[in-house]
Amino acid sequence: xxxxxxxxxxxxxxxxxxxxxxxxxxxxxxxxxxxIAAVIGDEIVLESDIQEQMHYARQQGGQVPGQCxxxxxxxxxxxxxxxxxxxxxxxxxxxxxxxxxxQKYQQILAQFPDxxxxxxxxxxxxxxxxxxxxxxxxTDNYYGQRKIERITEKTDVTPxxxxxxxxxxxxxxxxxxxxxxxxxxxxxPELTDAHKQELIDRLNKIKDEINGGASFExxxxxxxxxxxxxxxxxLYTRVPRGRMVKPFExxxxxxxxxxxxxxxxxxxxYHLIQLVKKSGKLYDARHILLKAEPNAAxxxxxxxxxxxxxxxxxxxxxxxxxxxxxxxxxxxxxFNGGVVTGHDGSDKIERDTLPSLVSYQLAGxxxxxxxxxxxxxxxxxxxxxxxxxxxEIPAHRLDLKTDYERIKNMALNKKKNEIVERWVxxxxxxxxxxxxxxxxxxxxxxxxxTHSLSN
Length: 455
Known about the structure:
Keywords: Isomerase, Rotamase, Signal. The chain has helices spanning 4-19, 47-59, 67-86, 94-109, 115-121, 127-152, 159-169, 193-211, 216-223, 246-253, 296-314, 320-327, 356-362, 400-427, 446-449, and strands at 36-40, 43-46, 175-176, 179-187, 235-240, 264-266, 269-279, 282-291, 349-350, 374-378, 381-393, 396-397, 433-436, 452-454.
């Protein structure tokens, strides 16, 4: 682990991502307001905010400082948010954030049998209260991150700075577990024309039922295979233009309010779309999705095609990199030779974090070997895959020879933290900050202690 001194500097810049996005895991807000801990400009930190976010940070496995230090970090972050909202170069995204909150709400709702069960589980009294909390967290996260990016946008580190960082913290750098480097190619099996027509015919039959008096909402609840909207009757609200895939959006915006489209093909399958409302750059729409789920024959055809590509690679007629660029359906890796990156953006992945299916396929391979073709899923769609083992790296403490990019990123983050801290310290004297008197014994740094302690 890093030393506590280095960690304290690092937590400041990471706090927004670590504690302002609990809805990506387990949502805890919804408690009654129990008092104001601090006011920063026109931003407020509630007592419940501190407890909820400390609890969440612990759930994520982070090293959480004491309540005083945690509040100090929150004040710093709220200052960033306050300044970001006043920064004319940071795009104001109120409508988009509201729409994202609605989508997250619907995604969470899809995991429960009904709305009441969900609200009870997350300790909210009303849907409005829960949506408002989601929007607040996303808004804080957005503005804080944008301000940090503005402050540090031209920051970089030289090789000498990376070396100096390593010399200072070498003994405290974390241990890397057993790691591997891998590349992959995956392909979505193509549906036959007959299969596509079957899906289109099913949607046309559903459309006939709607035209005959059935509600679009009830048909979506029964037939739609979109987990994010089916339980809500297929509804997406306040959708900004450019958010949905192009064929979906083009079809939706060419409709009159209340009108239903013909079946529309996208990468996710086939849709019936009903435009509910259009207002400026936003629109509400319902849809019914039938996924493009390949059958056994279509999977077999895709497997045969990918196996022939694998043979070309083995025979040296094509490199894995060339094959990934030409054939892979993974847009995130096809342009870098199919190289799969880890959570830190490097080309090394901890072996024990691999899915069991991937571990099984790679078992016994040596660097340069490829797996046989195997089936998997990606984005909730079936795929056929091959993987190449590029490297095996035994467990070790991070060092410059093996882990230069990782250490460079650590040095860069440290430098950014320091720049943001200096910027915050420079702004503190000019921003109204009031801290509740219950924190009068906290050992805040001097530039915070000069601010008033309210009753």
